[in-house]
Amino acid sequence: MPTVNLKFIGGETAKQQPVISHPLTIIGQINNLKQAKFADINFGSESKVTEQFWKRVLSSLNPSPTESYLFASNVASVGTFSEKYSRHNTPSGAYHIPKLLRNCVCGKGDERIVLVCKESELIACGCAIARSYPMFSMRNISSSKASRTVRVQVMVVGKQTCDTETIVSCLNDVSTSVRMAAQIVDMPCNFMDTTAFVEEAYNVATSLGIKPVVIKGEELKNKGFGGIYGVGKASVSPPALVVLSHRPPGATKNIAWVGKGIVYDTGGLSIKGKATMPGMKRDCGGAAAILFAFHAAVKRGFKQNLHAVLCLAENSVGPIATRPDDIHVLYSGKTVEINNTDAEGRLVLGDGVAYAGKDLKADIIVDMATLTGAQGVCTGKYHGAVLTNRESWEKVVTEAGTKSADLVYPIVYCPELHFSEFSSAVADMKNSVADRSNAQCSCAGLFIASHLPNSFLFPGTWIHIDMAAPSHCGERATGYGVALLLAIFGKESEDPLLQTIAPSSFEQQQQPEELGGFPTKRARNE
Description:
The protein is an alpha/beta fold.
C-alpha cells in the first residue's frame, strides 16, 4: 500500500494545481453544497459540467442519510449527507464522511477532495477525512509503488472568521496528529514496544524544542512507581513514565494530560483467551492520543502550562510477572492488592495522576485510556465515557465531543456508593471490582481518582475519559481523543480555528461547586 500524503489547501492554491488527470470528490451536507459557489469548484479544464447541470444534480439528491452521484466522465463524484442529527450526536455529520469516501474515491493515484462545510465544523470533518487515510500498512511491502497525494480543498459556507491560511495550517497540523496517533495504535508490539513509544515521544519533544523527562525500568521501582513498574516488569521492553512539559510565559493554569500506554495487553497471569487477546496492540490509544494532541496544541499556540504524562508498559507474562495476591505500593503511597492482573491500566494511570498532582502540581488533570470493555457496553461504540468530579466540566467535555465529533457521554460519579467494590482485607484497596455488574466503568475510573492528592477530595479538577470502543473502527484505529482534547481546551489556544470548537460552557466551569457527595473544597484555580 503506497503512502498517502494528505494535504489541506485553500481555494486559491487549488486553482493553481494541475488537475486534469486527478479524480475529484466533493463532500458536504446537502444544504452546504447548495450554498457553495460553483465557480470555486475546479472540475478541471476538460470538464463538461456546467453550473446548471450542477444545480440539477444537487436538486435530485435526497440523502437519507447519505447519497452519492458519479458524473458520467468518471473523474468527479459528489457525496452528500443529511443535516439531521439527534441531541447526543455531532451536528457536523462527520461520521458519514468515511463511508462516502469509500464509495466515491478510487484509491489510486493522486486525488482531490473538496470539503464544503461551516467553519465551526471544519475540525470535525477534517479529522474524519484524516481517519480515512491510515498511515500504517505492511501489505505488499515488496511493491515499489510511489506515494500518492490527496489534496483537500477547504470551502467554507456561511460566516468565516478565520483567514484561509490559518484554517489550512491548523487542519494540516490536527489531521496529521490524528493520523499519527492512529498509526501508533495500528502498529503491532513487535514494531511499537515501549522503547519505540519513548522514541516517538522524543521525536515530538524535539520538534517542539522540549526536553522530556523519562523514568524507566528499575528507576521506576526505586522512585516508587509501583503501578507502572509492576505491570511492565515482566517484559523485555522496560516500562517507562514519559513527561513532556510546555510552560509558556504568562500562564495561570497548570494542566496535565495523563495517557494509558499499554503497548500490548496479554492480561498478564490472568491471561486473556485466544479470542480476546488479538487486538490488544490498541491498548495504548490513550497515550497515543495525548502525545499527538499535545503536539498539535503546543504547535498551534497553547497559552497555559500543559504536561503530557505517558504511562507506558507491556502487560506481559514471565517469571517475574505480577501475580494475583501480590501487593503493590503506588506512587500515591497507597497499597493495592492485585486480584486481576488484567486490570492493569488503572494501575499505571494511578501512578500517572499521582505524579501529575504531586510533582507537576496540576490544577486540572485529564486521564485518557482504553480502560474497560464495560465502556462499550455503557456508552457504545461511538461515544467515549466521561467521569469527573466537576459537573460543569462534565458539560464542557460533552459539548466538546459534539463539536469535535469525538463523541463522549457522562457516566455515574458516586464514589461513596461505588468505591467499596475495591475493599481489601490486607491492603488499601484491590485493583478489580467485587461485582462486575455494579457500574464497572465508573468504578474503574474511581480507582484512578483514589490516587489523586487527597483522593476524592482533590481540590482541583479531574476528568477521566474511557475510550476503549471508539479508539478503533473494525481493525483500524481512529485517532480518537486528539480532536476531543483540542476542543475541550480550545479557549486556551491562540489558534482561532480551535477556538471555534471550544465549548460555550467552558467559562461556567470557573464557578465553585460541590464535589458530588463530599464536602466542598475550592480548586486552586478558582
